[in-house]
Design brief:
With about 230 residues, this protein is of the alpha+beta class. The chain has helices at about 50-60, 85-100, 105-120, 140-145, 165-190, 195-205, 210-229; strands spanning about 10, 15-20, 20-25, 35-40, 40-45, 50, 130, 135, 155. The chain folds into 2 domains: about 10-45, no CATH class; about 50-229, Lysozyme.
């Protein structure tokens, strides 16, 4: 009796190498059973990527014990909805600090970033290259979903440009990107970056001395300092 083929699975890093698995195909003379075996393909392991539904579900079920929240009520005079996203910020900072085993970002830094990027407007219309409350660019969205790119250790999948209009999606993507920007800023500076340098790297202004950089940093500082009072 011929021996039946089995699935051979090899795990490595963030992916599982599935060597063989059954596949249904159209019945033909060549294949009257309609069954065949597909050769090797790569599938990411659970916990190394998230799609939109998983982002929402994880947030709902996340253990809130011990979370560090941004300061409340400090920006309400300027932005009536400025405290609406504090829980999203707290959950995802905690999630990614544990995921990457890194020192957690300052929640006030993330809140001040949002204030400086979009004034807490969920769908700003004036910018044609960056989108949503955290102003993620098309290029950054692509990088955050590239399984072979610079953030391949943890990516998102099936996130569309229009999904960035939802802060529940846009904020976790931005926080994951901020953790990456910490790394790139550290590499450029040859030391640990402070919160301002991480934000400048997020905005693409770490190096240089332009008027746009100075204005953007001033705007960020204004909100951050207000939160820290």
């Amino acid at each position: 009796m011929p021996r039946k083929k089995s699935n051979n699975i090899k795990a490595s890093g963030k992916t599982t190498d599935v060597r063989e698995h059954p596949l249904t195909v159209p019945v033909s003379k060549k294949n009257p059973t309609g069954k065949t075996i597909r050769d090797r393909h790569v599938r990411r392991l659970p916990g190394t990527d998230l799609d939109g539904d998983q982002i929402i579900d994880l947030f709902k079920k996340y253990n809130r014990k011990g979370l560090k929240y941004p300061t409340t009520k400090k920006l309400l005079e300027e932005y009536k909805n400025s405290d609406d996203y504090d829980e999203i910020i707290a959950v995802w900072i905690d999630y990614f600090s544990k995921k990457f085993i890194k020192l957690a970002l300052d929640p006030n830094s993330v809140k001040a970033l949002i204030a400086s990027e979009s004034s807490f407007i969920e769908d700003p219309k004036e910018n044609k290259i960056a989108f949503g409350i955290t102003q993620i660019t098309k290029q950054t969205l692509k990088i955050l979903q590239d399984p072979k790119g610079e953030v391949k250790d943890f990516i998102f999948k099936d996130i569309r440009q229009k999904d960035l209009k939802n802060p529940a999606i846009a904020i976790p993507l931005a926080i994951r990107w901020l953790y990456r920007k910490q790394e790139t800023a550290r590499s450029k500076l040859k030391r640990e970056p402070n919160h301002e340098e991480t934000i400048l790297e997020y905005k693409g202004w770490l190096k240089g001395n332009s008027a746009l950089r100075a204005s953007g940093l001033k705007n960020y500082r204004k909100h951050y300092n207000a939160l820290k009072k």
